[in-house]
């Protein structure tokens, strides 16, 4: 056999082996390709959107559970919420937490934590909670928020919740109306409510309403009494504006900044602007007067109000930030300590209580003769262990006998801090316990 014939023979045999091998490979791949195609057909846009949002959805309950414990039969389910910042801030409805004595948050993975109240706005039916953990470096997956006003009438929307702390619950429908009016006693209270035909199941109030991009466009708030299939949600623009009034260094770091940002959409495009500025504050001294449309924060373009709010709440005393506006004006703001001279104001802000200084007459009336301290005259909100008529004798081991002492004892505390109270009451006698700053 010649060299050419030999090569042709080898080439012919090789081609046959390649063909047989290729056919065998295709046959082996066909089942997996079939199942992959079947699975891909099931992974709809709704499935993809839901898988992205569920880790941020939490259950909110009231009870006596300890942090990071498993669900307790003593807990009472209140509703749902969603994580809006990686530090563990949770947004929900104000009506969800109304009247609760102690709040617990159960994550999608089943872990349960105690929660403290950061802020509560019944008028807007919004409340902000904070997950309490011993590990300050814990990070939580925050929900992705849509651009304010980016809504399509008739688009598919999804209601997500975690109604019983046992897992997630979702319902899908369409965005049926934008800008619904809410009338109370003949007056229009809101004119921005979203209407959806996705059912709000029991326990889902406070959960996020999302679009097919997995972005939150609102949070569920109520169902129509006479039409069970119709639900209502608070839109993201109002949510971001309320959060911006809370997520400030004054509340989280006791550092004075002096302005509140907000978002509006005057010409179809969102713009972030200075909603209010406090006179004689660092912002005021820097030349900010209100109404300025913001462009950059520390050299970076401001893309959304929620991102700006997350930056602002982390600022500390001594930080200097630089803002520019759309008129190319520049503002340099140096943060200073927030005033704490008003002990009564600080007690209300951090402990959710009203206090009054002790007088001999009041001491006799309450049975506290010979004792020094400040008296709790009122206690507000959910999660408060401090009852009316309680005498607070010390805060974090520091004796308090007047408003000045209270201001000094709470000087360095910020939202989420653990504070030790020494108290005396007719019901419990002398008692020490821990509370979390709201």
Describe the structure.
The chain is α+β, with helices and mostly antiparallel strands. The protein has 4 domains: 1-42; 44-234, Beta Barrel (Thrombin, subunit H); 247-337, Roll (Pdz3 Domain), CATH 2.30.42; 343-436, PDZ domain (Pdz3 Domain), CATH 2.30.42.10. The chain is built from 10 helices and 26 strands. The strands form 6 sheets. Strands 1-2-3-6-5-4 form a 6-stranded antiparallel barrel. The chain has a 6-stranded antiparallel β-barrel with strand order 7-8-9-12-11-10. Strands 21, 22, 23, 24, 25 and 26 form a 6-stranded antiparallel β-sheet that branches. The protein is globular. Residues 65-73 have low confidence and may be disordered.
CATH class of the largest domain: Mainly Beta
CATH topology of the largest domain: Thrombin, subunit H
Low-confidence segments, given as residue ranges, are 65-73
The CATH architecture classification of the largest domain is Beta Barrel
Spatial strand arrangement across the major sheet: 1-2-3-6-5-4
Which secondary-structure class do the elements indicate?
Answer: alpha+beta
Intertermini distance: 94 Å
Question: How large is the count of helical segments?
Answer: 10
How many distinct beta strands? 26
Task: Characterize this entry briefly.
The protein has four domains: 1-42; 44-234, Thrombin, subunit H; 247-337, PDZ domain (Pdz3 Domain); 343-436, PDZ domain (Pdz3 Domain), CATH 2.30.42. The chain contains ten helices and 26 strands. It has helices spanning 3-42, 45-53, 94-97, 236-246, 249-252, 282-285, 305-312, 343-351, 360-366, 403-409, and strands at 57-62, 76-85, 89-92, 103-106, 112-121, 126-131, 156-161, 169-184, 187-196, 208-210, 216-224, 227-235, 255-256, 259-264, 271-277, 294-297, 300-301, 320-325, 330-334, 336-337, 353-357, 374-379, 391-395, 398-399, 418-425, 429-436.
């Amino acid at each position: 056999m010649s060299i050419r014939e030999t090569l042709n023979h080898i080439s012919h045999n090789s081609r046959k082996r390649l063909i047989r091998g290729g056919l065998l490979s295709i046959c082996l791949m066909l089942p997996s390709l079939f199942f992959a195609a079947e699975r891909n057909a099931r992974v709809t846009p709704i499935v993809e959107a839901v898988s992205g949002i569920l880790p941020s959805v939490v259950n909110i309950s009231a009870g006596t559970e300890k942090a990071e414990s498993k669900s307790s039969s003593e807990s009472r389910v209140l509703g749902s919420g969603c994580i809006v910042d990686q530090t563990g801030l949770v947004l929900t409805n104000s009506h969800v937490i109304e009247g609760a004595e102690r709040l617990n948050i159960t994550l999608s993975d089943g872990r349960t934590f105690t929660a403290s109240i950061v802020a509560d706005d019944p008028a807007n039916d919004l409340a902000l909670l904070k997950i309490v953990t011993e590990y300050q470096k814990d990070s939580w997956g925050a929900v992705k928020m849509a651009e304010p006003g980016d809504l399509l009438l008739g688009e598919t929307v999804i209601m997500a919740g975690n109604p019983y702390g046992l897992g997630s619950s979702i319902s899908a429908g369409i965005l049926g109306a934008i800008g619904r009016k809410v009338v109370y006693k003949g007056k229009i209270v809101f004119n921005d409510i979203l209407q959806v035909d996705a059912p709000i199941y029991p326990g889902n109030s406070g959960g996020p309403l999302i679009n097919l991009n997995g972005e939150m466009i609102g949070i569920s708030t109520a169902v129509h009494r006479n039409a069970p299939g119709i639900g209502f949600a608070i839109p993201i623009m109002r949510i971001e504006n309320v959060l911006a009034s809370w997520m400030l260094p004054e509340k989280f770091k006791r550092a004075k900044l002096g302005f509140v940002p907000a978002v509006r959409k005057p010409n179809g495009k969102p713009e972030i602007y200075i909603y209010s500025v406090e006179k004689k504050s660092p912002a005021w001294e820097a030349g900010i007067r209100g109404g300025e449309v913001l462009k950059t924060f520390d050299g970076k373009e401001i893309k959304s109000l929620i991102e700006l709010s997350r930056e602002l709440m982390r600022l500390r005393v001594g930080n200097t930030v630089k803002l520019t506006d759309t008129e190319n004006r520049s503002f340099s703001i140096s943060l200073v300590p927030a005033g704490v001279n008003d002990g009564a104001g600080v007690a209300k802000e951090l402990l959710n209580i009203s206090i009054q200084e002790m007088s001999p007459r009041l001491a006799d009336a309450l049975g506290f003769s010979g004792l020094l301290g400040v008296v709790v005259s009122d206690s507000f909100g959910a999660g408060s262990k401090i009852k009316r008529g309680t005498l607070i004798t010390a805060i974090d081991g520091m004796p308090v006998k007047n408003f000045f002492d209270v201001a000094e004892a709470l000087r360095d505390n910020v939202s989420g801090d653990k504070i030790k109270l020494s108290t005396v009451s007719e019901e419990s006698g002398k008692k020490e316990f821990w509370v979390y700053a709201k």
